[in-house]
Amino acid sequence: MRLYDTARRAVVAFEPGPVVTMYTCGITPYDAAHMGHAATYLTYDVVQRRLRDLGHQTRCVRNVTDVDDDILRKARQLGVHYLDLAAEEMARFDANMDALGLLGSYSEPRATSAIPDILGFIGRVLDAGHAYQAAGAVYFDVGSFPGFGQVSHLARAEMVALAAERGGRPDDPAKRDPLDFVLWQPSAPDEPAWESRWGPGRPGWHVECSSLAMRELGPTIDLHGGGTDLIFPHHECEAAQSRAATGQPFVRHWLHVAMVCLDGEKMSKSLGNLVFVSDLLKEWEPGAVRLAVLAQHYRTSWETILGGIPGDLFADNTKKWSGDHSASDVEDTHGILVTNRPIARENPAIVDVAPTALTHFGQIPPTHYAGKTLFSLP
């Protein structure tokens, strides 16, 4: 298998051992799953199924960020406990992903379950000389780590701009450098707090994933990623702090999935321009939603429409899919299901995808669209 590696900026061989460790950043459960989530997790589902077809065991961990600025802000607005909000949204998320036919996660750890691990992790980074205390918080010192930037390859000005846009607070006066990022922070009066040797507080976002990934999978992961919006600052910071804590590479291969857009803008909770998976499933068969998402090249941003389906896919194919098929309409090419538009064939990073990757639970049943058979593979 050959996959594009974000850090190396090239399609390279992916050659893991018999057991493949994978970590994909999960949701912050303060709202429902949207099409961007579906695109990311379905891409990892295809990769995982293909690896299993090739004889590997896979251990794919997807975390739950159940304590951070966003969920605490939303819980405050709703007047509910943040863990109650998380439980409700995770139930909805799991139901949506089950409907789309995702393989179950090897584990789905919550950030709040890992506070002892996080405290130990921060202690190791401090002891290694890569962090400092200031204003009741602990910050990672990017100036102490020459490799900072090797995942994203961004210029410093771009990093500062993205940090400001994505919650990195480069204007924090307690920081030595605007790009330094928080490992531990004091909690506001109405926020959860845990005791630590640096005072009561809560973890920063980036340190949660590093700690959970290492606890579940060990110091070095074969494949890690998420949406491209996580490359910086989240994954850049993860890579730096993890190497600082262990002295070992954190990730062998970075795989990121491009953004899904609506009206020209990245679909995101913060912008509110969301098409929810639960709403799609009220109108479309789950198999049709899965197929529509997988028809998009995973490294190319694509535009959906208010109905939630890719604007250039269903409009072209609905008539063919809902009627009789000829050999030119549907074919099986090297295990890649093809309608009149390739699903994965043009993708240099996911090649020779087995039919099981495009169907539910490893089976190859007929898939239906609006009550009529879409395709059936022998």
The coarse silhouette is: globular
Quantity of strands, as a count: 17
Helix content: 25-40%
User: Low-confidence stretches at least 5 residues in length (pLDDT < 50)?
Assistant: 314-378
Overall radius of gyration: 21 Å
Q: What is the element string, with H for helices and E for strands?
A: EEEHEHHHEEHEEHEHEEEHHEHEEEE
Question: What's the main sheet like?
Answer: 4 strands, parallel
Provide the β-strand percentage band: 15-25%
End-to-end CA span: 24 Å
Q: Classify the secondary structure makeup into a structural class.
A: alpha/beta
Instruction: Give me the side-by-side strand order of the main sheet.
Output: 4-3-9-10
What would the keywords be for this entry?
19% strand; single chain; alpha/beta; 378 residues; 17 strands; globular; disordered C terminus
Please tell me about this protein's structure.
There is one protein chain. The chain is built from 10 helices and 17 strands. It is of the alpha/beta class and 378 residues long. The strands form 6 sheets. Strands 4-3-9-10 form a 4-stranded parallel beta sheet, with helices on both faces. The chain has a 4-stranded antiparallel beta sheet with strand order 5-6-7-8. It has a 3-stranded mixed beta sheet with strand order 12-11-13, with helices on one face. Helix 4 packs across helix 6, helix 4 crosses helix 7 and helix 6 crosses helix 7. The radius of gyration is 21 Å and the shape is globular. It starts with a strand and ends with a strand.
